[in-house]
Write a structure and sequence with these properties.
Blueprint lengths: L16 H14 L7 H14 L3 E5 L4 H9 L5 E4 L6 H8 L3 E4 L14 H4 L4 E5 L10 H11 L2 E5 L7 E2 L2 E2 L6 E5 L12 E5 L2 H10 L21 H32 L5 E3 L6 E2 L5 E5 L1 H4 L3 H10 L30 H9 E4 L7 H14 L5
Parallel strand pairs: 2-3, 2-4, 4-5, 5-8
Antiparallel strand pairs: 1-9, 6-7, 6-11, 8-9, 10-12, 12-13
Bound molecules: pyridoxal-5'-phosphate.
Length: 376
Amino acid sequence: MSEQKIITVTSPLLPDLDGFHDLLKEIWNSKWITNNGAFHKRLESALCEYLKVPFISLFTNGTLPLLTALQALHITGEVITTPYSFVATTHSIWWNNCTPVFVDIDPATGNLDPERIEAAITPKTRAIMPVHVYGRPCDSARIQAIADKYGLKVVYDAAHAFGVEVNGESILNAGDLTTLSFHATKVFNTIEGGAMVMHDAETKKQIDYLKNFGFAGEVEVVGPGINSKMDEVRSAYGLLNLEQVDAAIEARHQVARRYREALKDVPGIRFFEDIPGVRHNYSYFPVFVDAEQFGMTRDDLYFKLKEQNILGRRYFFPLISSFSPYRELPSAAPENLPEANKLSDSVICLPMHHALTDEDTEKVVNVILKHCVSAR
Ligand SMILES: Cc1ncc(COP(=O)(O)O)c(C=O)c1O
């Protein structure tokens, strides 16, 4: 009997191995393997152009730029954030000795609900840390208006939002600082990696110091920086991946189209539509299961998919606010976060990546259709 193919939730975008080998030869010849080498510089300038941002600083992952962003802005006290994210978002607040204050989300977008932010502001609030969840743009104009009114900083976690634009403008330029993740699971990856986007050269200089232990030159340390530099090997890998990321996004777009077409009339299955004027990156394809209408709970469907070797992901579940380091916080109470709890209890991210075939998506869809109440 032939082994059944496993359909994974994601699959890394890999550069051509021969092309990568050529660049490795260059690195070997130069003997410069990290610390702001030629490929690091080339990737930073290529990303500025591709992402339409003025300045970028590469990092070794997507968590450390979050930590460094709050540090660079001297944030103390309370930081308003979303519980509907990956745990690194809140951890970065904790690592800065600040208190995360969870605010509920808008179920229509999955993002921090601007309507609810003001009620959570106290005299100790210093910053807002929203997340462009699944790469869907936050309402940055409204968030900025609130931040300006109360004198707060805004740091966006754009780990999912590589290349996302609204009316031709990058969403990475919103707020004071924005961070990205280039983890293997992301639309654009450098295996592990990340970046921070900033508005001016002086801020880039400070951030570049902070990601290199705080060194400003050979003999001066300007702050308690961390080591979070991206090396030459991963920078070269990133340069090659950048050449194929548009094609990968288009392939993801086609997967999203196929899912939407096949699932549009399934009772109890909700998904997000594209937003006019937005260049989406199709980083995830979350569906939200209404157990009553669908006739099966989210978890049961998740395990039915798994039985067929289809690995979805309950992303984000559990909510960050329910993890032990945070659950005692007053803002973590489920009554404070009804929408985030509902979304978290109903979500499955279906397999979504550039290499999914028509046959793969059909198989995923067929399992869902088979278990829907109207099919029984
Ligand atoms: C929303 C969000 N923030 C931060 C991170 C952390 O990024 P990294 O894994 O590159 O450290 C992730 C990674 O999955 C994420 O999804």
